[in-house]
Structure formats: C-alpha cells, structure tokens
Amino acid sequence: MSSGREVITLQFGHQSNFVGAHWWNIQESGFIYDPTSPPSEINHDVLYREGINHRNEVTFTPRAIVVDLHGSLNHLKTSGELYDDPGVPSPETIPWQEDKIEVVTTDQPVKNEFLQNLEKEDGEGVPENGKMIFELDNDINVWSDYLKTRFHPRTLSIVNEYKHNDNNRPFESYIQGSEVWNSPNFGEDWCDKCRLFVEESDNLQGFQILMDSTNGFSGLAGEALQYLNDEYNSKSVLTFPVLMSTSSSHSTDEESMRIVNLVMAFAKSSEFSSLVVPMSCHNTTWRQYGPGRNFQHLNYDVNFSYHTSAILASYLETISLYYRRRSDAYRMLNLCSSVTPTGRKMANAVLSLPFALGENGNLLRTLELWEGPLWSSLTPHCEVDESVALQSIAVRGIQKHQLVPTILRPQDQCNPLFNHTTSAGMLDAYLTFSCDGVSSQVISIEENISTTAPYPNIFSEHIQRDGSFSSNPRPSFMAVEKSSSIAGLQSAKSTGDMLSSLHSEASRLNLRRILKSATSDLEVEDYSEAKETLLCLSECYSDNMFI
Amino acid sequence: MAAISLLNPKAEFARAAQALAVNISAAKGIQDVMKTNLGPKGTMKMLVSGAGDIKITKDGNVLLHEMQIQHPTASLIARASTAMDDMTGDGTTSTVLVIGELLKQADLLISEGLHPRIIAEGFNQARTKALEVLEKLKIECKGNREILVDVARTSLRTKVHHSLADLLTEHCVDAVLAIQNPGKDLDLNMVEIMEMQHKTATDTALINGLVLDHGARHPDMPKRVTNAYILTCNVSLEYEKSEVNSGFFYKTAEEREKLVLAERQFIEDRVKKIIALKKKLCDKTDKNFVVINQKGIDPLSLDLLAKEGILALRRAKRRNMERLTLACGGTAMNCLDDLSEEQLGFSNLVYEHVLGENKFTFVEECKHKHSVTILLKGPNKHTLTQLKDAVRDGLRAVKNALDDGAVVPGAGAFEVAVSKELHKFKETVKGKTRLGVQAFAEAMLVIPKTLSVNSGFDSQDTIVKLLEEYTSLDVPVGLDLSSGEILKPADQGIYDNYSVKKQILGSCTVIASNLLLVDEIMRAGMSSLKG
Q1: Which residues pair with A449 in a beta bridge?
Q2: Any bridge partners for residue B195, and if so which?
Q3: How many domains does chain A have?
Q4: Is the pLDDT of residue B246 over 70?
C-alpha cells in the first residue's frame, strides 16, 4: 500500500494553513488520473495516505494535522466530508423528551464562486475546472475559501480556547500557545492524532512543519516540536516558520510581542528540528514588514495572504521534491544534513517563479543570456549574495527537448553546459561556473507546477498559458495553467546576519514593559536563554572556511 | 468623571451603581441561558455550526465552552464555572444559577440603600453556616456500591437519556471499582475510554482489559489468539538510516553497504531475541505470543515476527504501556536483553476488530484487572462525543464519592435544608448583615425552583411544599420531578457529590461578593485604542 517513505505534515496557525491549503491544491491539480499516461515523477504516497471510509469508498487524503482557532474554518466541517454522514439529524431522533430539545443553528457561510463550482462538479463527477478563470481576490477571507483538498477526519485540530479574529482576547503570545498545549484537551488529542498517522506508516522519513511564528501558534508549535523530539527522536523534522503580515498597522507593543514570539519560535525550532527554513515574501519582517520580494514575472500584493501564500506553497512544492521523487531513495534526512554542516540548523530559501525560458525556449540560451541572480530570496533579512557556502537546488518543469536549441551554433559544442542530458546536470554545471566556491547539488523533474485555479492570477501578462515567456501578452480570458520553477536551500553567511539582527532587535526590548501589557507572563529566563540560542546559532555562520 | 479619563480620554468606564448594574445584568443574562438545562428534565441543546458540525448536549460545561461569550463579566462567571468542572466534573450549571441569583437578591437590597460591603459580609457568614449544614447532612458511604451507583446515576441522568444513563452508571461504577487500589490515589487515567463509530449508544460496554486503537500491520499475523503472553516494550524495531552519508564513516561504496547491513543486523538481533523467548515459552504448548511496542516496527521485522505466528503491534499509546502492565501483569521493557517469563503479562484472549480503515485490538480476560476500558459505541461522531463527556463526568462522580467518603441528598433537598437553616441562623446575626444572610438563603432556593419549572410545575407551590415538609419531618426532602410531589432523596437513591456542593458554596460566594464590590469598570487597554 504505502511506499515506506512517509512524511507527516503538521500545520500550526492560520498563516501556515494559507500556505498549506495552496500546497495541497497544487499537488492535487497535479494528480494524473489517466491510467494510460506514464506515472507521475512524484510519489504522492509520501504526503498522502490511502484509506477507506465506512461506505467502502477509497479515499486519498493528506497525511497531515492542521491546527487552527475556533471559527476560522468557515464552511469546512471539522470531521471532513469523506467519513461523515452528511446532513443534520432531525431533533426527533435524539433520545430525549421531544418538547425539551432546542436546536441552535448558526448561519451557513456564503460560498464563493470557486467553491460553488467545485460543489457542482462534485455532483456531476467531472474533474474539469482547469479551464475556468476565477476572480477570487475579493472573496478570500480564510484559507478554507479556496481549499480543494478533502481532509481525513483526524486532520483538523481546533483550538477552542481562543476564537479566530477575536480582538478582545487575541491569541498573540508564545505563552498562550504553550498553555493551550498543556490544557487537558488539546495536547493529548493532538498527540493521539499524530501517533495514529505514525502508526500506519511503515517507514516514516520525518515531519515537515509549517508554523506561524509571530502569534500564539509559535508556542503551540514549540511544544509540539519538543514532543516530537521526545517521542520520535530518530525522525527528521523540517520546519518552515511562516511570516506574513496580516494587517498594515500595529501598535508598538504588538510589534514587541511579535519579536518575543519570533525569538522563542526560532530558538525552539532550531533546538528541536533537523533544519529550519524561515519563509516570507517580505524582505524585512522584524518590527515593520518591509516591501515584497521582487519576482520578474509576478505581480502580487505582498499584504494579501492569498497571493503570498501561493508563492510560498510553490516553493515548498519544488524543494520538497528532494524527498518525494519516485525514482530514488533520497530522504528528508539527506536533504537536512546536506545543508546543515557544523550546527548550521537554519538555511535560506530561494525561489525562481516562474522560471520561464526565454523566447528561444531552451535552457542553454536562457542561462547564457541570464543577467543577475537566478532567484530571489524568500527568507527575510537575507539577500541573494556571494556568501553562500552550500546549496541544494531543485528544478522542475524543463523538458528534455528544451535543454538545447534545435538550431545549434558551432561554438555550442564547446560550451561546458552542452553535454548534459538533464536540466539538473546543466544547471549544476552553470552554477559551478557562475558561483565560485559554492558546493551545490541539483535535482530535477520534468513535471511542471500546476497553477490552475484556485491558484491566484499573479503572473504577468507575458507568461503564456503553458508557463513560457513571450513578448506578446496572454489573452485575458486565459489563465496560466502550469509553471516551471527553481527552489533552493542555501547555507550562507547572511543567515547568520539575519539571526544576529533578530538578536539585537530582541536585546533592545524592555521585556517587563511588554509583559505587563500581555495577559500571561513569559519566564524571563526562558527568554534570555532563547536569545542566547540565537546568538550561538548565528556564530556558526561567521566563517565559511571550515565547511 | 473618572480619574482615568483625565489620563486617557478614550477610556470607557462605568462607575458605582452603573458598574454594579453591568455586572448584575451580565450574571442574569448567563443565568437565563443556562437555566433551562438544569436537572434531568432540562432541555437538550443541539448546536449546528454553519459548516454542519453538530453537537448535542445539555452539559453546562460543554455549553459554556461552545458559547461565544463577549461580555467580560459573563465570561468571568463562565470561566469560574468551567474551572469548577475541571476540578470536580459537575456542578457547572448550578454555579452559574447560584451566582446569578445571589446577585439578583443583592440587587434588591442595594436598591434599598444597603451597602454592598455589608451584603458581602452577610454572604460570607451564610457560607460558613451553609458548610456546617453540609457537614450535618452528608451521608457516609464507605465503599457502599449501592450509593456509588446512585450518585453516578444522579449525575448521568442530567446529561443523557435515562435508559442510557442507567447503563453508563453501571459501567462507570464497575470501572472505578476495578481500578481501585487500596492505599493508592485513584487514577482515572487507568480507565481507558475508547470510541468506536459503530452500532448504537446502548451497545457501549465495559471491557475487562484494554482496547487498543490499532492492529497488526502484517497480513499473516493471527487475528485472534488465546492464552497469550504479552510482551510490553519500548524498543525500536525499525531500521533507520542514520546520517551515514555525511562521509565521515566510510570511504567506498562497499564500506557503506557494510555499515548499512550492520545496522540492519542490529535491529534483526533484537527481533531474534523476542523470537527466541517465544520459542522457549510457547513452542509445543497451546500458548501464544503478543508483542505490544511503543516504538516502531518496520515491515521486515513484522515479517520475521509473523513467520513465527507472533502478533505484533507498533506505536502503542504511551499511557497504554502503564495500563497494559496493570491489566495483564508483567513489566514494560526498555531493553530486550535477558528477557524472562516474569516480565511478561498474560491474557486469555487477544483479538482484532476491523471497522473500515480503523482497527481495534482487544486484550481481554487478563491476569490482573487493574485497568479497564469503557468502549463507547455510537452511530455518529456527535453521539460519541456526548457519550464521552457523560462517561468522564460519571467516572468523576464515582471518584469524588470515594474520595469524599460521603454524599449529599440531591433533588434540591440540600438547598432547601440550607435555606431553612439559614433563616434560623439569621435570627442570631446582629445588625444589617443579617439581610445578607437572608439574601443568601433565598438565593439557594433557585435550584429547587428551577428544577420544578423545568419539570413543568409551579415553582411557588413547590417551594412552599418543600419548606413545610422539611420543617415538619425534619429530614432532608427533595422534589419528585415526575409527580411534583415531595420525596426523600435517600429512598429514591438521589445523591449529589459532597465535594461538588462544597465547591459551589465556596466559589459562588467568592465570585458574587467580588462582583458586588466592583465599583468601577474601565476599559482602556490596547484593544480599545485600536477600534
């Protein structure tokens, strides 16, 4: 049934779930249903599980636990739709005196155009929504508004103590998170869900974690990481702290609170994970959120989670190829250890999306003509620079016939890039020449990232339907359906600089002042210990010499 | 103008009488919501969320958790009441009702000019007296199963339909008695509560032994074994690639292969130790062997074990390690060296039950019976949730009764007695404080009043009858909810927990007094600046 390379996905918090929802959608749009076509290069059994519901239907659902606050799900049912009987039982069926039953119903949320369409198709059973364009930008409030994937009943885990978007009692501090974890209901329930996913895996690779790192979920995730470390210490843990701005204005105290949470989240995650990769579309994220990262062919709104999370999800979809390819036995463990030499537990994320080949349509010429860095950084406070020591790169979407031009020039034969038969090989050779002294590893697959709806329409007009670049604009009734991409992990000096800048930001805080305004108190000692951890970690990056 | 508005012009505030009015109206509001739920004739609420999530309950605790309470005073009361539930497992609705009623009574006095401080003082004296009454009324129940059943039934009948309540009552009492170990604290965690979405609620059963929520992961493993040795262990039987690719440990591909083989061998040796023990103990007998491991077992190890006819389960719950040894005997092993028979548990029957993709393994007819499982069954999720909440409360009621060594007559009898005794006590109190005592005495009657209203009787009638009977008979009398007549709770077996009543008296008085003494409410935090 399963391949024995299972990975369990753990999502903590609303921002992380925004990313997660896009990621599951992208994967699901990439499924190949046609039995005659060759099997996908991606082994979907790694992240998905096969199951059977009580109506004896086979299900294929993410092996994931998704944590969010009460009231954040909108139309989504906690137990999922696949395993539960639909419909509300009539009050007469309840074993109780009939006149003593009171039914309290909350209004059904209005479904947006995309969800209505999804529902309609469900009835007719045609998986055909790739052709449609949706203008969803005004309709997305929560991540379930565009979630296509169906969840297993064990997947959703709801924190009932706090409400989503509750200004009276916001879930805003690390300590609140760890209190929720230790409350009688939540922690144990979560651990049980996790245990059942582990139990059914034959040979678990590890856990991939998406965590909000600026609100109460940081505490929740911190405690969960500690639990994973206790209970499954031989498994890899790959953590992606997600940083997204939610509203434009923050008070100084809220900003300070965020710094405290960040420090705790970074310290805990680096202590208990094999590898930590902070992700954000902003270039700075400490006190103020800076402007968005620049992607040549993307027009996106950096303050809109629906857009930014799609970019982050595309990154994940590409970099995770390392442990999801069908063809080899490369594991999460190998990826983590390849970029974490001498205690460098944190790495930078870099992404090129779409990695559109020029009008010539081949990789060789595109690389020859490329100017500037190949990719943009997705890790805040880290720029793409020369300080990289190690990198692991994944490329997808370059077909074999797109490697070299059909009409060759005589000098092409002498080009050291020429003799490669895969995009990985060619890019590897390119990187050896362009980035001196960087040790790189590159993998590739030919499959593109699927960007059909509900992926936001963020591509510039020069990107065609199939993800290629052309100087003629794409017709407006057409959406980009797929895209190529390059994603990478880099261990660079700039990671250390980011950590020390967070440390100095944190040292400037007057902890007592913040704690007075917060509802619960954080142990001062824990906090200074966490700051110390960050400082030690940043020192690992000071010199590239020994790597 | 309040001083705060000089400092912060945007601050919202309410002073003195206005502040009190805010608090009292909040307390009344939450009381109104909860009132209809009290007692076995209260309303059942079905909550349907926009997404279609269903919750059916009449448990005050569950309802308070589900409700989106905005008002700060109301949420204070709600949190105090749910904290009460966390400690004793019952009495949430009563707490809310009594707090509301205390404030209502106080409101009458305050409007006549009495200072809140004096009322609070009266409440305090009344509470001390009420606790004395509680001591007098309590009925010793040292290990009397009858009374334990009664107290659990009284609690459960307020949560689920009475036919189901009676069934669960038996299970709860038997479960607690099974795990009871003289000289040790009662640990309710040793009662496993397992849910199975299957059949109907009335199929819920008490299993003498354990039900695990996972099964064997190998098709050739036996589905049912008898006379089985149980090895409980926490040892990894899973080959895990270590970080051999970092290059320090080997130079050539062959060396790497060797390293991998050696590591694989290491795991296999562990499996072989188990097999050796199994061969020694079980071969040529009718005995069988079961391994329950907290760590993982990979397919290769499973295969080796299956060939020997050993049933092996991986990734057992951490807590089940303890439960298993309590149920079957033996010890949980952290190391497989020097295994011997004494370290093994024994069970007469181990079998698997498959429900869709979920597997359950029953370990029954064990050597010891110090850990049991209540197996909840129900056709759907919300029934199971409702059952689970009820069973937890039932178990807690039995535990409380055992811990207290005493119970209190229910059906409103306790409250009537307290009220009456307080009226007598009032005469001995000097000054205006006695008005506070009187208010407390009146407030206690909210419980029998609400019970009677919820059952469709006239509350005035009931109260008069109850008070009269109590005076003439001089024994605690309660209300018969089906006839509206007077009954003696002891005859009908209606008992409440001593500790619950004690908690109610304590926390209600404190919270009501605190709310009374509030003379200014202000709201000037960060959140109000934002809006």
Answers
A1: A483
A2: B376
A3: 1
A4: no
Contact B52, A86 (CB under 8 A): yes
In the structure encoding, which two tokens stand for residue B138, read together? 């309590």
In a domain, A526, yes or no: no
Going through B257-344 in order, the beta strands assigned E by DSSP cover 288-293, 311-313
- State pLDDT tens for residues B358-386: 899 999 888 777 888 999 988 888 888 88
Range of the domain at A174: 7-85+107-317
Averaged pLDDT, B411-415: 86
Partners of B297 in the β-ladder: B237
Inform me whether the C-beta atom of residue A54 falls under 8 Å from chain B C-beta atoms. yes
- In whole angstroms, give the CA distance from residue B227 to residue A189: 33
Residues of chain B with C-beta less than 8 angstroms from the C-beta of A79: 53, 381
Whole-prediction pTM: 0.88
Nearest chain B residue to A232, by CA = B295
List CB contacts of B254: < 8 A, sequence separation 6 or more: none
Q: Which helix (H) or strand (E) holds A517?
A: helix A511-517
**Which residue among A53, A75, A88 places its CB closest to the CB of B356?**
A53
Say if the Cβ atoms of B357 and A51 lie within 8 Å. Answer: yes
A362-404 tens-digit pLDDT: 888 888 888 888 899 999 888 887 778 888 999 998 888 888 8
Task: Look up the ipTM and state it.
Answer: 0.85
CA distance A129 to chain B (A): 23
How far apart CA A155 and CA A152 sit, in angstroms, is: 5
Q: Is B394 in contact with B461 (CB distance < 8 Å)? A: no
Total beta-carbon pairs less than 8 A apart between chain A and chain B: 129
Question: Quick check: is A54 in a domain?
Answer: yes
* CATH number reported for the structural domain that contains residue A27 in this entry: 3.40.50.1440
State the nearest Cα–Cα gap between A448 and chain B, in angstroms: 30
Give the Cα separation of B101 and B326 in Å (integer). Answer: 47
Residues β-bridged to residue A491: A390
Contact flag A79-B163 (C-beta cutoff 8 Å): no
- Whether A476 is in a domain gets the answer no
Please tell me if residue B247 touches chain A, with a CB cutoff of 8 Å.
Answer: no
Q: What angle do CA A116, A122, A126 make, to 5 degrees?
A: 110
State whether residue B213 sits within 8 Å of chain A by CB. Answer: yes
A73 touches chain B (CB under 8 A): yes
Portion 409-428 of A in contact with B at CB < 8 A: none
Q: Report yes or no on A525 lying in a domain.
A: no
Any A CB within 8 A of B53 CB: yes
